[in-house]
Amino acid sequence: MAGEFDLIDRIRARVVARDDVVLGIGDDAALLQPPAGMQLVVAMDTLNTGIHFPHDTAPADIGWKALAVNLSDLAAMGATPAWCTLSLSLPEPDAAWVDAFLDGFDALARQHAVALVGGDTTRGPLSVCVTVFGFVSPGRALRRDATSVGDEIWVSGTPGDAAEALAQWSAGGARDPALRALRARLDRPTPRVALGLRLPGLAHATIDISDGLLADLAHVCRASGVRAELDIDAVPVSDALRAAGLEPDTRRTLQASGGDDYELCFTAPVGARDAIVAAALEADVSVTRIGRIVKGQGVVATTADGELWAPVRAGWDHFSG
Amino acid sequence: MAGEFDLIDRIRARVVARDDVVLGIGDDAALLQPPAGMQLVVAMDTLNTGIHFPHDTAPADIGWKALAVNLSDLAAMGATPAWCTLSLSLPEPDAAWVDAFLDGFDALARQHAVALVGGDTTRGPLSVCVTVFGFVSPGRALRRDATSVGDEIWVSGTPGDAAEALAQWSAGGARDPALRALRARLDRPTPRVALGLRLPGLAHATIDISDGLLADLAHVCRASGVRAELDIDAVPVSDALRAAGLEPDTRRTLQASGGDDYELCFTAPVGARDAIVAAALEADVSVTRIGRIVKGQGVVATTADGELWAPVRAGWDHFSG
User: Fold this and answer.
1) What is the dihedral of CA A142, A148, A154, A159, to 10 degrees?
2) Residue B39 is nearest to which of A31, A93, A143, comparing CB atoms?
3) Among A17, A62, A164, A302, which residue has the fewest nearby CB atoms (within 10 Å)?
4) What element of type H or E holds A11?
5) Which residue, B115, B86, B117, B111, is CA-closest to B101?
6) Could you say which DSSP state residue A27 is in?
């Protein structure tokens, strides 16, 4: 069994080095040097066991996901990630668990050159809280209130995969390789940082789909004072989700209301289409037009047949999910 | 019962306004404008129920303490507080509980003009994670590795009160008004921000006593490569702690090893004595010289009789406490 300070030493040994970290883990607080003239972008998200990930999630996947969901928030602002802090509550100070957790956390931190600069380890039910810090030039952040009537709605990737993986897990676990591919999307979401960095100047409002496409689009509509028309059958379906053989309405509901995809949903003027496709190609992620912004309020979804459509269950609220 | 977004609205309604918050609660991330030329100081601490506060702690006191323990870390760096983020995990989305929590959180936030700029609310065992942000001029931060041989060791306030309150609570609760005064020191610690701001240029190493005086002094000694000689009977005793009528060794142990006091311990050259006393007077807190820094390593404590002294139990580790 390790003590708190042993765990901190294990964590410190694996931190990404950055010149702008004046003083990292080990003092009362971290000392950081923000770049001149930039705005600081800060997001904070907690993952609790059994709420934000299944109890049987591998420690390395928990580590990855804890950072990924936070980097996704920076991506949705168009920010460049720089630093993070980590608060880790564990029932027991289990060094092997922490090492495995760090395997996943560090793998993603290194991809984005994010330095872990502080936080704490403490006793409690398994819970991981991360705060991430990034930068954006003044006026360039992708805000929810920046949509205009006439914009088109875009989404990255293939929403619904994580929700189907969760449904499969609830029903007893993944049954074949295609379902294990879905589980990877639940456990190791890819924060769309590379895409987010290319969207300022092209996209208007941008949000990450952590609560589900409908719920997150509703946030944009409320902030911007507009209405979103969503073509639900235009939302792309992954091969793995298609292989699950779901009824169309069940599949649509997972895609519209399932949380945890961490794809980006953004709005942009029609004239930006080609530039957005080019940016997505550079960022190595697919993007798809799935609707448009009109006058009014709220979100309406329509099927390919032109029928109004509503999900089996609405939204995602971490107090009801 | 309230949902996640209702709770966020309740929290947002009470936030301190600051001109350097470009975009606060409500988007994927906060947008902040750090002051030019300053270093950013960041600390993060989690409080879990039953570990960091007794289960019967009032919600307002939990709110106060969650911010206080973090501001204490900024104080120990000599930093000016500015912003914070809050992640609140609750078993149920209880609006009355959140309102009471915010009463305590806001009371302290307003004292220090700290703006809450983001975070999340989620379901889980009661847990509060706060990240605080402050500023310090380059080269002015109070680091643990800055002590020199010949320095004197100082402490603010009257350590031991919080530990006695916790001992009383464990034994069945406070029995008289003096003990209730101790409980207030456990539940509503005063972060020594005003003192910390006056120490750069006077003090060398500075640390907050969250883990206990001996354990925290040991951190300073390890970081600075020196030895601390502690006059245990010079550590000031509050009237309330004296009224508890403890055996001297029990009282010394609480003062040397009890955590949760959030006083500052700092080292300074002899020539700074008068300036330190004047700074403490301005900051409205008592300061006392309790030892000296010598060559060597580790911490040794001596009683007023010149006897070597060791506590009944050593240090405070959040995995053993």
Assistant:
1) 80
2) A31
3) A17
4) helix A4-12
5) B86
6) B
Q: Are B155 and B276 in contact (CB under 8 A)?
A: no
Angle subtended by helix axes B95-111 and B4-12, to nearest 10? 30
Above 60 in pLDDT, residue B226? yes
Tell me whether residues A76 and B28 touch, CB distance under 8 A.
yes
Q: How many other CB atoms are there within 10 angstroms of residue A244's CB atom?
A: 22
> Shortest CB distance from B318 goes to which of A4, A51, A77?
A4
- Residue A51 in this model has a pLDDT that exceeds 70: yes
Considering only CB atoms, which chain B residues are within 8 Å of A30? Answer: 41-43
Which residue in B has a C-alpha nearest to residue A86's C-alpha?
B44
Whether the CB of B143 is below 8 Å from some CB of chain A: the reply is: yes
| Chain B contact present for A9, CB below 8 A | no
Q: If you average pLDDT over residues B104-116, what whole number do you get?
A: 97
Nearest to B120 among A31, A44, A144 (CB): A44
A230 phi-psi bin (left φ>0, alpha ψ -120 to 50, beta other): beta
* Distance in angstroms (rounded) separating the CA atoms of residues A86 and B81: 20
What is the Cα–Cα distance from A75 to A198, expressed in whole angstroms? 10
The DSSP code for B101 is H
Rounded Cα distance, A106 and A209, in Å: 24
Check CB contact under 8 Å for A29 and B134.
yes
CA-nearest residue to A206 within chain B is B28
Residue numbering of the annotated binding site of A for Mg(2+):
28, 45, 73, 120, 208, 211
How does DSSP classify residue A25?
A: B
Closest chain B residue to the Cα of A47, Cα to Cα:
B122
| Number of residues assigned to chain A | 321
pLDDT at B290 over 80: yes
Identify the band that residue B67 occupies on the pLDDT scale cut at 50, 70 and 90.
very high
Burial B243-272 (b: 16+ CB within 10 A, else e): ebebeeeebbbbbbbbbbbbbbbbbbeeeb
Give the C-alpha separation, B283 to B68, whole Å: 16
Which ipTM value was assigned to this complex?
Answer: 0.92
